[in-house]
Design a protein that fits this description.
The complex is a heterodimer of chains A (265) and B (226). Chain A is an alpha+beta fold and 265 residues long. Chain A contains nine helices and twelve strands. Chain A has a five-stranded antiparallel β-sheet with strand order 1-12-9-6-7, with helices on one face. Classes of the chains: A alpha+beta (265), B alpha/beta (226).
């Protein structure tokens, strides 16, 4: 987890954020590391940014690819002097997020050159979300999903997982079409909660095939994050981790899984 | 802490059907398979059932169908998850209607996908796994050519993964002409069907547990001649 988490946690903004990536049982069995990675940061003016990347099981260095992708996107946004604001038009936000996705892709390219790897060895998906009190923009490449609750208590999906005919096909940041394939979703409303999950949790947390968030799953998680104690961060992290490693979840999927959840106020 | 709702106790999980992974086992039961080959094949089917049964997700996701070809083509078992798959005792005899069998298997895959779509079920790329010890015999000669074109067209369009395994005196050159160049036929070592079906069961587990975007590399086929 990055430094900004502790630097900013409970000081600058009203966002509470927790995230965990957990290795899937099929990966444990085969001695493969967790190929999911996530990152997040809270910025001034009540802005939260979240990234989730899911490395492809077929890629030799998927765990490195997802780590670089998720961290670079967050680092890039943190390093910007000026973020678009809510009065900016959709195109400005789309361009801003696509640029962050592009910087992540460039980082994968540089790393692959440096290490003499094929770019496809680093294949990963990427979801990048940025939320302020009156706007949320999410870039999506591949599967996984971002969902939210608004200030009227309504649960809804912020994005749609991208996939092909078969469930084990996705778009990747390493593809030459990555930027073209990246979709940016904009919601100009006040969101009280945001969650980003990797595909490992899709069948557990969503109603299929509509990809609507399943209230039985997300409502308790959102209540939980609203109630976490800022000064007992580690205890809450532990609880989230215990939950994600429980039979309730692990009995339903053998894939790596990631949950990053944020609550405002 | 005690009065705060605990996440684990309060969360409910969505009850979605599992994605499906269809596999047609297409078995040569012509006369030349009589004796040890058919016995070993029957034993291998039991191994396949056991291997898939041991994995709880694969048990819910893999759908097996069994089609035999000799002097006709029989659907011995239509698509079923492994709990409904009772390995039969196959008997050998008759000609080798290979082309007819292949076309039937590919038609069944196509129909199964339509069923998945109609029922909003997610699915993996289906497999056909063919075993033969010979070459086409007794059927109209154009059928094997048609079957080969179907295999290559379906492979090129990502519709199916077609695996062909030759046993003993199988005509490997002929098999090579009907299969896709990226998935050439393999020759079974002796009659090691058990090892081959163990590999198939493990491969189905891997595929049915694979995450989006990943055409998981399969284990080396230790049962095949190099």
């Amino acid at each position: 987890m990055r430094k900004t988490e502790t630097d900013h946690f409970g000081q600058l903004g009203k966002w509470r954020v927790l995230g965990e990536s957990v290795i899937g049982s099929s990966h444990e069995k085969r001695g493969i590391p967790c190929q999911d990675f996530h990152d997040w940061a809270i910025l001034p003016e009540d802005i939260v940014i979240i990234s989730v990347a899911d490395g492809a099981g077929s890629a030799a260095k998927a765990e490195t690819g997802s780590c670089i992708a998720a961290q670079t996107a967050i680092d890039h946004i943190i390093s910007q002097d000026n973020l678009p604001d809510s009065t900016d038009n959709d195109a400005a936000w789309t361009e801003f997020l696509k640029e962050a996705v592009n910087i992540s892709r460039e980082a994968l390219l540089s790393y692959s050159h440096l290490q003499s790897l094929r770019l496809s060895d680093l294949a990963t998906t990427l979801i990048l979300a940025i939320a302020s009190p009156d706007l949320c923009a999410v870039a999506q490449l591949g599967d996984g999903i971002a969902v939210a609750r608004d200030n009227e208590g309504k649960l809804f999906s912020l994005t749609i997982p991208q996939r092909g005919e078969y469930i084990n096909e996705a778009n990747f940041l390493t593809s030459s079409k990555a930027l073209e394939d990246t979709e940016v979703f904009l919601h100009r409303k006040f969101l009280t909660h945001i969650a980003v999950i990797s595909d490992g949790l899709q069948r557990i947390g969503l109603r299929m095939p509509s990809y609507e968030p399943f209230p039985g799953f997300f409502s308790p998680i959102f209540s939980f994050i609203s109630n976490i104690d800022n000064d007992k961060d580690s205890e809450d992290k532990e609880e989230l981790l215990t939950f994600l490693k429980s039979a309730k979840i692990k009995g339903r999927t053998d894939d790596d899984l990631t949950l990053v959840v944020a609550s405002m106020g | 802490m005690i009065n705060k709702p605990r996440i684990l106790e309060t969360v409910d999980t969505a009850n979605n059907p599992e994605p499906r992974c269809a596999c047609v086992l297409l078995m040569d039961t012509s006369g030349s398979m009589k004796g040890r080959p058919i016995d070993a094949l029957n034993q291998g089917l039991i191994v396949l059932r056991e291997t898939i049964s041991q994995d709880s997700l694969a048990s819910q996701r893999v759908e097996l169908a069994l089609v035999t070809f000799s002097s006709d083509v029989k659907v011995v078992q239509d698509f079923t998850t492994v709990d409904g798959f009772a390995p039969p005792t196959l008997r050998a005899g008759g000609y080798t209607f290979m082309g007819t069998g292949i076309i039937k298997a590919l038609d069944m895959i196509h129909a199964r996908k339509e069923y998945y779509k109609a029922n909003a079920l997610d699915y993996y790329r289906p497999w056909v796994f063919m075993i033969t010890d010979g070459e086409p015999q007794g059927e109209a000669s154009h059928l094997i050519g048609e079957a080969g074109r179907r295999i290559i067209d379906d492979e090129n369009n990502n519709r199916v993964a077609f695996f062909a395994v030759g046993v003993e005196e199988a005509n490997m050159e002929a098999l090579a002409t009907i299969t896709h160049r990226d998935r050439p036929p393999k020759k079974l070592k002796g009659l090691d069907f058990s090892e081959m079906f163990l590999w198939l069961g493990n491969s189905m587990q891997r595929v049915s547990g694979s995450k989006p975007g990943t055409m998981i590399p399969l284990e080396p086929a230790g049962w095949a001649e190099v």
